[in-house]
Design goal:
Layout: H1 2-10, E1 27-29, H2 31-34, H3 38-41, E2 44-49, E3 54-58, E4 67-72, E5 80-85, E6 89-98, E7 101-116, E8 118-120, E9 128-130, E10 135-139, E11 142-147, E12 151-156, E13 160-163, E14 170-182, E15 191-198, E16 202-210, E17 213-225
Antiparallel strand pairs: 1-8, 2-17, 3-4, 4-5, 5-6, 6-7, 7-10, 9-12, 10-11, 12-14, 13-14, 14-15, 15-16, 16-17
Amino acid sequence: MKYFLIALFSLVPFSLSAQTFSCPAGQADVMKYFVMSQERRADHFLAGKPNPIYTRVFPNDDFADQGYWFWLKSPKAHGFDVKSFDEKYVYMRSTELEWKDNTSFKRFEHDLPITQRCVDEGQPGPEIKVSNTRFNYFSSCRPYKSSTVGTAVNNLDAPSLIDAGGSVGELWTRILHYHYNCDRAFENCKDEEQFYLGNGYGLWQWEHFKNGAQVNSALMNTLDEGRPVATLPCENSYR
């Protein structure tokens, strides 16, 4: 099985710069909050309810100047988020559409910036407003229609020490607030998703609010051994 998994992940195509990136003095690279550390993610994942999170980063360094990563929500890669990063920003790229079919997904036509890559140590990130949120629906890896989520407003909290519970315990955490379905003035946002991002662990909690009321949530706070046994089948979901 070990050799099968190595072969499987060698099939994921990417040609990205592996140049190590560092932020200016006095600033932190927020990637250390968004993804599990290289040492942990090699053989561990965060278990929880209703789904786990397996992290795969391309290139597999902490951290390159540009790349992308997967948050896989099952060992067979059914349920996923793909996000990307460069020297300026961290972005949303795609997410699952039908949980039982990972050839179906939604992808932004242009990666949607959610935070600056480098943020002042101990401080919140600056607010980011996005007017173009157009995305495409895909089925069997092919696009079939497009839509938008209005305008979006994103902000990243300053780090705070939060007890995640489970086997993870207290974590320095930044919370990403992704507001969307906002009006043209970037106000009156109908939806907000909150991503709890632990230093060295990545996403350990997620909450979705609609018109101020919570409608969905997930908690992944148990560090467990294991690796996914599949990857994303559609190259255009992540490249």
